[in-house]
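User: what does the whole thing look like in 3D?
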Amino acid sequence: MTSIGLAQIAIVLLAVIVAAIPLGNYIATVLAGERNLLSPVLSPIERVFYRLAGVDPAREQNWLAYTMAMLAFSVVGFASLYALQRLQAYLPLNPQGFSGVPADLAFNTSMSFVTNTNWQNYGGESTMSHLTQMLGLTVHNFVSAATGLAMAFALVRGFSRAESPTIGNFWVDLTRSTLYVLLPLSIIVALALVALGVPQTLQGSIEATTLEGAKQMLAIGPVASQEAIKELGTNGGGFFNANSAHPFESPNALSNMLEIWALLVIPFATAFAFGHAVFDYRQGRAIAITMMIVLVAGVSVAYWAEAGGNPLLTEIGVDPSPGNMEGKEVRFGPAMSALFAASTTGTSCGAVNAMHDSFMPLGGLVPLFNMLMGSIAPGGVGAGLYGFLVLAIIAVFIAGLMVGRTPEYLGKKIETREMKLAMLAVLIYPLSVLAFTGVSVMLQTGLASLNNAGPHGLSEILYAFASATDNNGSAFAGLTGNTPWYNTTLGVAMLLGRFAFVIPVLAIAGAFAAKKKGAASVGTFPTHGPLFIGLLLGVIVVLYLLQYFPALALGPIVEHFALLAGKTF
Amino acid sequence: MLSQIRPAIVMIVLFTALTGIVYPLAITGVAQLALPTQANGSVIERDGTVVGSALIGQNFASDRYFHGRPSATTGPDPAEPSKSIDAPYNASNSMGSNLGPTSKKLVDRVNATIEAEFAAGRVDVVAADAATTSASGLDPHISPQFALAQAGAVAKARNLSESQVRAVVEANLEGRVLGVIGEPRVNVLLLNLALDRLH
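Assistant: Here's the predicted 3D structure for the full assembly of 768 residues, as structure tokens:
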């Protein structure tokens, strides 16, 4: 670890926080339906959307209607994306003449983009036409993130309102999140990326004759526009197979920092927006601080692990001082690779600028554990906040048990129904991750996809299901995921991770919105100070370490000790 | 749920139009007008031929050129297109090796690279980037350490003095922005082009 590396990390995180505070206030006004500085331009477009869709923006929905609207939108999105991939050979804007995407891969990819996962079992530049990339993948990058933001705000309204039968209107939240938050930021970031060197063209590829006379086909396309929303929407689906490690996706250190900033800024801003929406800034700040502590802890471990180099290679003469460079780009180095890895899995982004599969055992443990925790530091767009609020409910409940008082969070009594729903949500993750991993390691077809033997092989499978369930999308990419078994099971894991989690969350939102809001008294447990932050961290550690320690012990942890003993597989 | 089908379909269509067509085309239009070089892939031409992109690494095997990092990219086997074979710096199929830290294949591959570089007299110390594959397989850069280590061998192949070649390397070193952002590096294609201009 060098002081320059640490300074690079600090610069990015500082830039995120500086921007997230005002952006959070802005997001709160957008989702409260208030006018803001972009209203003169955007509200006419917004009204057209509502009129054509037959939506009355003033009419709110109860939690069930809200959920149904969200599900209907997801089903239609899934079907249209599936059709687009299957039919791309017959559609325009296919300069490389790709054929239709096979059924199992199209299923996996549609599920992946509708759930904001962006797990990619395909190489973008060798599978998807420009039309599919633009009309299918880019669109879902926007709307799946907007759906996440909508659901987070439905839950926030559960806390900010009292005795309300409704939690907002899904169509309004979806439209406003896209138009006012994601689109303007994407335009700015996309143009900044082009200025830094990211291509933006409708050409398919460039033919070059190298200095040694060989032919080199450079795949290219409308990269910057997809890159911007890929990060801002915490989607992570790259235009190219190598994702943000590809020099056309991120040509230099500045574009790399901008991308990390873009993938962190909305999730942190959402925490501040939460404080704004419940009229207590300190509540949002406590959540943002907790998120930052978890993120910084992860970055520190990953950077430390990667900066030391691989002792097995040091032994045969490789200079360890630049760190573990297998699967890393020279222009990023270990510090920015570690920060990207922790950020992309701390959010549900899943973009990568280095190959996590080639990280050191403990370096790779960080992104894996970040996802097993449900990507909550700071989490995906919207998904991070609602995931975190579920943990806050559990933390407050445990605090209530310890002192023997009815637990309350923001004046709302937490009762049996809400606790059952919260536990239902958090138990979906281990169920999906551990069950699918367990079955895969017992099947020949599951093991045939491995790229690495020994404990690292188990890590590859565990990582895949953690990533899918968590709707992250990053991978230990050595695993060949494009097989009927993994296409299907990973698709189902994504479905569970998104909808089986969020339906209980929306039910909690409905239940809280209907409750009275109690006034704070001297006996109320404060949820904005260091005590609460400590409790929240404790709950996170206990909950997730207990669930996953055995699996992690058999994967990255045992690999670490094998490495120290000089063993290879 | 049925009452939500109409808004769902209309919203998908409208968002497709806005974020799938208007947004990327508008960005393309602005980018092509304002920043055509970057928007079209930072292509480098020499004597009217496209020789590559300043951003994308290419394969160098000759002694006369500085070599880039080992690359893990593959391409379809010409004999049997359903199979893939090693094809370093295939810019239509970016990928890393994805070999884990305890992989025997990794250790053997690194060992073979080191032996080959030593045997060819190309290096005296093994820089980390010289022995490892990059994440994209298209890394355009190498570390200054790896570049300088190759200077002697390249000078010999070109009948130049080592100090002449080292001077070209020094001139192509890229440092950190404001002394902090980024890593010290050398762009191999730009370096080799500069070298060709010496003659």
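In plain terms: Chain B has a mean pLDDT of 93. Residues 76 and 84 of chain B are 4 Å apart (CA to CA).
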